[in-house]
Amino acid sequence: MTTVTQKMPQKLKDRLYPVVLRQFAGKDFHAVNIRDISRESGISTGTIYKYFSSKEDLLFSIINEKLLDLASLMRLHLEGTEDVREMFRKLFWVTMNFFDKNPDLAITAFITVPLKSFMANKSYKRETEIDILNEIVEKAKRKGAVISDMENHYFVDLYMMISVRHIQNWYVHGMKWKLADTINHFFDFFWKVVQN
C-alpha cells in the first residue's frame, strides 16, 4: 500500500507511463527496476519515488488509470445505444480496440504481471467496467433480452474470460492480428449463452 499522496503532473506521466509499460511488456516482472525506468524515461529515481512508493505502486497506478480510461470509452461508445445485443457487442469491441491501441498495457496486465500480485491490487477488480456491464445486464433483463435468472456475475465472468483469453491467444501467436477483429469469432457464442 502506498503512502505517497502527490499527483504526478501530466507532462511527466506522458514521459514515464509508456516507458514503464514498455519495460514490463518486454521483460519478466521481476527483471524490471526503477533505475532502468529512470534511465529510459529521463526522469530521476527521486522524482519517481516522490509520486510512487515502489515499482509495483507505479505499475498498478498506471494500470488502474488506463482501465479507468477504458471505462470512459465504454460509456462514450454506449451513449445513445438502445439495442441490448449491440450494447454487449460494443462493450467487447471497445475493450479489444482499446487493447489494440495499448498493446504494452495488454501484455503487462494479462501476461507479465504475476496474477497473485495483480489480484491483490484494486485495479484487478475493474469495478468501473463491471459497473457498466451490470448496468447493461440490468437493462437487458428489464427488456427480456437475456436470461433473467442468470446472476449478473456470470455475465461479468464471461466478459472477463473471453477478453483475457483472446488477449493471451493473440500474444502467444505473435500478435499477428487485431484483437478487435476477433469479435466475430466469439460474440455469437456469447450472445447464444446469455440471450433469453
N-to-C terminal Cα separation, in Å? 44 Å
Shape: elongated
Largest sheet entry: none
Derived from helix and strand composition plus strand pairing, the structural class reads mainly alpha
CATH architecture of the domain at 64-194: Orthogonal Bundle
Q: What Rg do the Cα atoms give?
A: 18 Å
Report strand %.
Answer: under 5%
What are the segments in which pLDDT stays under 50 over at least 5 consecutive residues?
A: none
| Secondary-structure element series | HHHHHHHHHH
Report the top-level CATH class of the domain at 64-194: Mainly Alpha
Mean pLDDT: 92
CATH topology descriptor of the domain at 64-194: Tetracycline Repressor, domain 2
Tell me how many strands there are.
0
Number of H/I helices: 10
Task: Tell me roughly what share of residues is in helical segments.
Answer: over 70%
Multimeric state of these chains? Answer: single chain
Describe the protein's architecture and organization.
There is one protein chain. The chain is mainly α and 196 residues long. The protein is 70% helix and 0% strand. The chain has a domain of 131 residues: Tetracycline Repressor, domain 2, CATH 1.10.357. The protein has 10 helices and no strands. Helix 1 crosses helix 2 and helix 8 crosses helix 9. The longest helix is centred in the middle third of the chain and has 24 residues. The protein is elongated and about 55 Å long. The relative contact order is 0.12. The mean pLDDT is 92.
